[in-house]
Each structure stands twice: as structure tokens, then as C-alpha cells.
């Protein structure tokens, strides 16, 4: 699905993480100690940008407050934003450990 921003181990010899921007082939953030935090940063960037640049305002719908949802795999999480990507609405869902997954809207339902 989404893939412009990915989390990788930083190439500075440390055990820290970074966020790689595949559209410009460069680091967007480095020196992040926590992998979950790195994934949060990457998902926030995916909300702001698509493969071509800034995401159009009409392609983002924030859910405030975030709503509990259940994925088709029957895993609970919390939905906090929708984005339209390649003609499909995707929901950003955080699990109980803070991990972020982009789920097609057709695979989500309210709890």
C-alpha cells in the first residue's frame, strides 16, 4: 500500500532508527531511539505526502477523537485519520502497542 516513508536502521553505526523517504532517496529523520516512534513519524509523513508531493487537503480526513475499530483480521485498534491513496480510502490504525498499520476502509468496522 503506502510505501514512500519506511523505517530503517540508521546507517550511522548506531542501533537507532530513521525514516527513509523513497521519493527523494534520502533520510527524512534519523537518530530515533524507539522503533515505534519511528513508525509514528513515518505514518505522520504518509498523511502529509503522497508519492508526488503534498497530499491534497480533500484526500485527508481526520477522525477526532480517534475511534475504536476492528480490522478484518479481528484485531482491535484505534482509527485517527483517513487518507485517499490511489483512489482508495485507507485508515491509519494504531494497535495497543502503538504500532501503525494502513488498512483499506472496506476492511474496517466500528467496535
Question: Any overview of this molecule?
Answer:
The protein is mainly beta and 111 residues long. The protein folds into 2 domains: 1-55, no CATH class; 57-110, SH3 type barrels. The chain has one helix spanning 35-48; strands spanning 5-9, 17-21, 26-32, 49-50, 53-54, 60-71, 76-85, 88-94, 100-104, 108-110. A 5-stranded antiparallel sheet has the order 9-8-7-6-10, with helices on one face. Strands 1-2-3 form a 3-stranded antiparallel sheet, covered by helices on one side. Strand 4 and strand 5 (53-54) form a beta hairpin. The protein is globular, with a radius of gyration of 14 Å. The two termini are 24 Å apart.
How many strands appear in the DSSP assignment? 10
Proportion of β residues? over 45%
- 3D shape: globular
| Total domains | 2
Give the structural class. Answer: mainly beta
Overall pLDDT score: 89
Largest sheet, strands/sense/barrel: 5 strands, antiparallel
Number of helices: 1
Instruction: Report Rg.
Output: 14 Å
Strand order of the largest sheet: 9-8-7-6-10
Order of helices and strands: EEEHEEEEEEE
First-last Cα distance: 24 Å
Roughly how much helix do the residues carry, as a percent range?
10-25%
Low-confidence stretches: none
Amino acid at each position: 500500500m503506502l510505501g514512500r516513508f519506511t523505517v530503517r536502521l540508521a546507517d550511522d553505526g548506531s542501533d537507532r532508527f530513521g525514516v527513509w523517504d523513497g521519493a527523494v532517496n534520502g533520510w527524512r529523520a534519523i537518530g530515533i531511539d524507539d522503533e515505534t516512534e519511528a513508525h509514528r513519524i513515518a505514518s505522520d509523513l504518509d498523511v502529509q505526502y503522497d508519492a508526488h508531493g503534498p497530499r491534497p487537503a480533500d484526500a485527508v480526513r481526520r477522525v477526532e477523537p480517534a475511534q475504536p475499530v476492528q480490522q478484518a483480521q479481528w484485531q482491535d485498534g484505534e482509527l485517527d485519520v483517513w487518507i485517499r491513496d490511489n483512489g482508495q480510502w485507507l485508515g491509519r490504525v494504531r494497535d495497543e502497542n502503538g504500532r501503525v498499520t494502513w488498512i483499506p476502509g472496506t476492511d474496517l468496522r466500528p467496535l
